[in-house]
Amino acid sequence: QVQLVESGGGLVQAGGSLRLSCAASGRFFSRYGMGWFRQAPGKEREFVAGITGSGVTTYYADSVKGRFTISRDNAKNTVYLQMNSLKSEDTAVYYCAARSITYTGTYYYQGSYDYWGQGTQVTVSS
Predict the structure, then answer these.
(1) I need a labelling partner for 52 at 20 to 30 A (CA). Which of 30, 32, 41, 77 fits?
(2) Can you count the helices (H) and strands (E) in the chain?
(3) CB-based contacts of 18: which residues, under 8 Å, 6+ apart?
């Protein structure tokens, strides 16, 4: 069982930056691929970024590529999402999620994740 707790959300002006953190409980954190997803009001939850257990490979949605960076510190059981050049359309609740590294399918698929955090609100004012 893995418990995930996100932090770092808040209100920021367009063009600003935020760094989200997701702390995981439990052992063997490096055995989990991690993903960040977001859900804006009235919209479906969508993939933002993913990272493999080793941290070597990362994946991004086209809408955030070049602006967001996902990383992880396995010694601290934490995954991060650095968000730069924020836009009003980035406003959403951001969730982190974990999945077994034995799953080899796309990181974009929400159904592949076994554990989810409660989410943290990010609001970008224009």
Answers:
(1) 41
(2) 0, 11
(3) 8, 9, 10, 12, 83, 86, 122
Q: How many CB atoms lie within 10 A of CB 50?
A: 25
Sign of CA dihedral 33, 54, 71, 27: positive
Is 59:116 a contact under the CB 8 Å cutoff?
no
Residues 6+ apart with CB under 8 A from 21: 6, 7, 8, 78, 79, 80
Angle at 14 between CA 10 and CA 78, to 5 degrees: 40
pLDDT, tens digit (0-9, with 9 covering 90-100), for 32-55: 999 999 999 999 999 999 999 999
pLDDT over 90 at 101, yes or no: no
Which one-letter amino acid corresponds to residue 123?
Answer: T
DSSP state letter for 26: S
Question: Tokens 């479906």 label which residue?
Answer: 44
pLDDT tens digits, 49-60: 999 999 999 999
